[in-house]
């Protein structure tokens, strides 16, 4: 009889206003809109990153799983679940939401990022 814990197979539920996101792992060189290659070592100011929402707590009102969100990578708590790295944050730490479900919303700014 095995007494090994099976916590890696248990479902995970986010609590309160927490949001779990999967970041874009391509932290290498980038390309500008004009086609100029920007190396990963180039010094830039405070740069925000995009991530995909994987799970949300029951108090989260503005994002849903599958949305893309803009966040500050300096303010993050990383966690690894089943070998995949995620970032855990509060809903108030998100700067923007990008989702097809927001098209035609009355409070949309009309900006396309």
UniProtKB/TrEMBL annotation:
Keyword Chaperone: yes
SMART domains associated with the record: Cpn10
Pfam short name (any one): Cpn10
Keywords (A to Z) from UniProt: Chaperone
InterPro entries in the record: Chaperonin_GroES, Chaperonin_GroES_sf, GroES-like_sf
GO molecular function: ATP binding; metal ion binding; protein folding chaperone; protein-folding chaperone binding; unfolded protein binding
Domain of life: Bacteria
UniProt cross-references to Gene3D superfamilies, sorted A to Z: GroES chaperonin
Subunit and partners: Heptamer of 7 subunits arranged in a ring.
Family: Belongs to the GroES chaperonin family.
Protein function: Together with the chaperonin GroEL, plays an essential role in assisting protein folding. The GroEL-GroES system forms a nano-cage that allows encapsulation of the non-native substrate proteins and provides a physical environment optimized to promote and accelerate protein folding. GroES binds to the apical surface of the GroEL ring, thereby capping the opening of the GroEL channel.
Record protein name field: 10 kDa chaperonin
Origin species: Streptomyces aidingensis
């Amino acid at each position: 009889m095995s007494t090994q814990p099976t916590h890696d197979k248990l479902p995970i539920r986010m609590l309160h206003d927490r949001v779990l996101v999967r970041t874009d792992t391509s932290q290498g060189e980038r390309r500008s809109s004009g086609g100029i290659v920007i190396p990963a070592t180039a010094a830039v100011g405070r740069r925000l990153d995009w991530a995909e929402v994987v799970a949300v707590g029951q108090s989260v009102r503005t994002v849903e799983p599958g949305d893309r969100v803009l966040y500050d990578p300096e303010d993050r708590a990383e966690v690894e679940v089943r070998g995949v790295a995620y970032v855990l944050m509060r809903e108030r730490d998100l700067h923007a939401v990008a989702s097809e479900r927001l098209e035609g919303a009355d409070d949309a700014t009309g900006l396309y990022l």
